[in-house]
Design goal:
Radius of gyration of chain B: 24 Å
Helix content of chain A: 25-40%
Number of helices of chain A: 17
Strand content of chain B: under 5%
Largest sheet of chain B: 2 strands, antiparallel
Distance between the termini of chain B: 28 Å
Shape of chain A: globular
Structural class of chain B: mainly alpha
Order of helices and strands of chain B: EHHHHHHHHHHHHHEH
Strand content of chain A: 25-35%
Number of helices of chain B: 14
Strand order of the largest sheet of chain B: 1-2
Number of strands of chain B: 2
Number of strands of chain A: 20
Radius of gyration of chain A: 25 Å
Oligomer: heterodimer
Shape of chain B: globular
Largest sheet of chain A: 6 strands, mixed
Structural class of chain A: alpha/beta
Helix content of chain B: over 70%
Chain lengths: 510, 385
Amino acid sequence: MEKTIELRNITKTFGPVVANKNACLTVHSGEIMALLGENGSGKTTLMNMLSGLYYPDSGKIFINGKSVYITSPKDAFDYGIGMVHQHFKLIDVFTAGENVVLGLKDHFFINKKPVTKKIQSLLDRYGFVLDLNKKIYDMSVSEKQTVEIIKVLYRGADTLILDEPTAVLTPQETERLFVILRNMRNDGKTIIIITHKMQEVLSLSDEVAILRKGEIVKVVETKDANQEELADLMVGAHVALHIDRDLPVNPTKVLSVNHLTCYNEEHVKSLDNVSFDAYSGEILGIAGVSGSGQKALLEAISGLQKTEEGSNITFFDEKGKSEDLVGKDPKIIKHMGVSLAFVPEDRLGMGLVGDMGMVGNMLLRSYDVGKTPFIEVKKPAKLASILKEKLEVLTPSIDTPVRNLSGGNVQKVLVGRELASQPRLLLTAYAVRGLDINTSYTIYNILNYEKKQGMAIVYVGEDLDVLLALTDRILVLSDGKVTGIVDSRTTDKKKIGQLMASSEENKEHD
Amino acid sequence: MIKKEPLVRIAKRNDATLKQKIVMKTVCIGTAVLISILFIWIVSGKNPFPAVGYIFTGTFQNSIKIWASVQETALLLGIALALTPAYKMRFWNIGAQGQILMGGLMTAVSMIYFKTLMPNALVIICGLLLGTLAGGFWAFIPGFFKAKFNTNETLFTLMMNYIAVLIVTIFTKIWQGSASSLGLINSRGTYKHIGWLLTINDNPVIVPLICVLFLAVSTYVYFKKTKHGYETEVVGESVKTAKYTGINVPKVMMRTVALSGALCGIIGFFYVAGIDHTISASTSGSYGFTAIIVAWLSKFNPFVMIFYAFLIVFLNQGGKNLSDQAYSANLNEYSCEFIVFIIILSILLSEFFTNYVLIYRDRNKFKKYYLHQLITFGLTTKEVK
């Protein structure tokens, strides 16, 4: 059955923040529509209104020309609309099959056989591979995603909204997902995919709607689009998608990690016998599917994570003097004179204090200087003003709580503070996550500048294209193990994808 | 299956101006006052306005009443300030009552047992020291368990209250012997007024008042200017950030909670040595809990706390006066307390209306428009078409 979904003049505000402004969009069945936009451009908000999580402030939704009111996810399902969210909503101790039927009210008792049969037929129809009796906690991220998609299909949805589905997948898994999505489209389903990756848009979708600052600025047919044009539409100005990269100059060893093993809170190995070196004047990239041990690695080096016996982390200062970092907390490491800075993934939850202004946040690094019980505010205040000016941080004042700043400005404050200590080693986790294209390039430029000054940089990233363009070497983590350290100039995406998915058997070092 | 747009929706707003906030608060409190007057009128069946007068004279009738209110304000403010360090750290200490009682108990112990051993000044100093330590220790116990084993502090501090009440009851029973109550400690004989806090012009309130005001300033300075205060605030904001910075979280937690309890202990000392000169399980009444409201309403700003502490005391005293005056047999102390809480609730509600806005379906219909205007008092920034 032909089906048309139309969003007309949708506006949604959260306090002073306008998430969507007069957004209009028409989607037909049997097509894949990509919603492309930078973080914060209102893609997810718009789709949350279609799937019943939010209600628009003004504007209307029409299905087949009839005005409808969607006030809950259940309403959305009644209209055949289902959404797979970025953060999965599954019960860990249940099996895949149990999760699929969870919450359905038609029967008090569930007769397993016909249900399993129905789910299996759905799986076969589109080419999913899934063991229905497997528990969620035993599953990989990609399997969990499959369960989420099946959950939506089982509820009879013919319109599927996917929010950044590829963020957690390896390139190979992404390709597999795309095959399935194309099968579904050919079966007459409507697919809306939210993304900020342009290559995916070009390879998968039929139409692209570009969002900027909550508005749909343009809808184009994918076959007529190219990457530069899409980038310009997303940003609203011309952007140069190019990162300079120089060869490392006089690299000397700054950090040596040997046989590093850690356990997480659930006593599962988060890092398994990791060994590598980092050099001055070099950016070392860390690649891997999210949750492969990147966080544990950086936290272990900076003294936030307990390491197992036999682990060895050695830091070398300018004169080649070595310091052992194992078993030391961040304060001791700082007082040992080890110049190490860490830009963590969770900016407001770990790197900064959201309710404090820039000055208060500069203090985090220096509040304990001096012998008096009182804090010294002058220097941090000066540093805050300098950063505000130099990095163009948009904030009403240096005392405005950083919580109220945009993601990009929050990151500038954090990166600026960490670099202000002029460290010899800089650890960054997802330094550009959630940032707009321009701010991302500002960060790349800062990192490149510091690299030229001789800083050793460890860059944990998620976008393989950026990792390949920015870094000098890439260390690939899979399940807490190093599956390869490759030269970024000679390797390609396919090779890294294989390393990301591989385990022990094809372990190799360059 | 056709659904309608929801009747009322709530949306967040952060754009209320100061003027709008003030008007909103006035409207909310005004409404509460109107409801209270209506309540008095219905319950008593008499002209409610003299009753309103009695509420005012509860504080402002004469200097005795004024000083009584000042005393209560000082104590309530003191407890709210004592809670502030723990609350800034998001440690929900609801055990102020127990910490006060333990502080007061140790003060009483020093008054009773040390009077024969040392001069008056030393008895007082011992009482203060022991009281502070006891209060601090009483809070340190849940603080220790929270820091080491991440136990829930609300349940723990609440339980510590019950234990403190029982300990105090046991001691007062022992001390009172066959008497019906403990009575004033050291009230006559050789040891008359030993361990009693110094009075100025026979006024026992002035010394505690000065100390509490000093505490207000110190609290402000502590959180604005000191390293310890800064650490406490970072731990309260995010334990992860604190660890990332290298702050020893368990140490800061135990230190801050013990400080909070020690300050409560000092308030206990003021109760016993300065004001009551006796101790019972109900020494601090419900102030250990009322102070939580004071601390929250003022968003932990020590100077705003002075205002809210006085407001609550003023309402309490007014309510008490109203029932004392026997204006109407129906207006007993409970119905008076009811009025007090209606007004406190309205202050809390006004916070809601300054932070959220209501959006109605059929905004074009006159009736709804009118209702909308009435409820939000024309304060909404939303266009009403």
